[in-house]
Write a structure and sequence with these properties.
This protein is mainly α and 260 residues long. 64% of the residues lie in helices and 6% in strands. A three-stranded antiparallel sheet has the order 1-3-2. Strand 2 and strand 3 form a beta hairpin.
Length: 260
């Protein structure tokens, strides 16, 4: 967040200055801002009317140079060096920093061999010093250097200015992403509804089981015998059988013949 705030402040400062300058004074400002060690975005300055008015004049090459810093790399400069103003050391260093950012846009693991070639550095020690002091220390990238694997793993890289036509591609990509997200959300909503229905069915089933258990308990409770009944009471088939038996014994005693 700090680097974005600093960028915004610098851009605002240079835009205001460019709006008040013309001709050679504006050229000097372009050289100054492309050499600034903390400025890495140039599109807003390119859009200043006074800067655009350099087109078609003797200073038109400085607009091309500014476009190079907005969208190009060190290799682009080498390919078109004869058509552009010579760069001072600070501008060369800046353009190499921007080259690292461009490479990090498409690859999160950058090989030392690729970086050595793209930055025109002679050895690994020089490359690692550049990545640490000119990139990581400046806050434009964050990552880990792997000396054994000869690579750098980029965890964060500051964004560069959008190239002409690139905004349309980004909008298309975001539109596709939104469509995919909508489909995912729809699928999630359907899964949630299915889960809610399953929970409802499970709750209904549990209630049915509980109700049946209660019915069985009540049924068993209604069919339970009184506690005063014993097993012996049913030896004669009816609870009254024991009483009948006692009555029969009494009658037999009464009928017994008298003794002489």
């Amino acid at each position: 967040m700090e680097i974005e705030q600093k960028q915004a402040q610098l851009i605002d400062h240079f835009v205001k200055q460019a709006s008040t300058l013309q001709g050679s004074s504006l050229v000097s400002l372009i050289v100054q801002l492309t050499s600034h060690n903390s400025l890495f975005a140039f599109s807003e300055i390119l859009a200043v009317p006074n800067v655009l008015q350099l087109q078609g004049t003797e200073h038109a090459v400085y607009i091309d140079m500014l476009r190079l810093f907005a969208h190009g790399t060190w290799s682009d400069y080498k390919s078109n060096a004869s058509l552009l103003p010579p760069l001072v050391p600070d501008q060369i260093n800046k353009l190499k920093q921007l080259t690292v950012l461009s490479l990090a846009e498409t690859n999160k693991v950058l090989s030392y061999d690729q970086l050595l070639e793209q930055l025109d550095l002679s050895n690994v020690r020089e490359l690692e010093d550049f990545l640490i002091n000119e990139c990581m220390y400046m806050g434009i990238i964050k990552g880990k250097l792997d000396h054994l694997k000869r690579s750098v793993e980029v965890q964060f890289a500051a964004g560069r200015d959008l190239k002409p036509g690139q905004l349309g591609n980004i909008i298309e990509t975001l539109t596709d992403w939104l469509a995919t997200t909508d489909n995912v959300l729809l699928t999630i909503e359907e899964k949630i509804k299915w889960a809610d229905k399953k929970c409802e069915l499970n709750a209904t089933h549990q209630k049915e089981v509980k109700d049946r258990v209660e019915e069985v308990k009540k049924s068993l409770s209604h069919n339970r015998l009184p506690r005063e009944y014993r097993v012996e009471d049913f030896m004669f088939g009816e609870p009254a059988g024991l009483m009948d038996y006692e009555e029969d014994r009494t009658r037999m005693k009464r009928r017994r013949s008298p003794r002489y």
